Amino acid sequence: MRKPIIAGNWKMHKTIAEGVALASDLMAAATGELADFNGCEVVLCPPFTAIRAVADAVKGSAIQVGAQDVHWESHGAFTGEVSCAMLIDAGCSWVIVGHSERRAMFGDTDESVNRKVKAALAAGLKPIVCVGESLDQRESGLTHDIVTAQVLAAFNGVPAQQGAKVVVAYEPIWAIGTGRASSAADAQEVCAGIRTTLSGIYGSEIASEIRIQYGGSVKPGNMQEFAGEADIDGALVGGASLNAADFSGIIRATGVAKNRR
Question: Is there a catalytic annotation at residue 75?
Answer without folding.
Answer: no
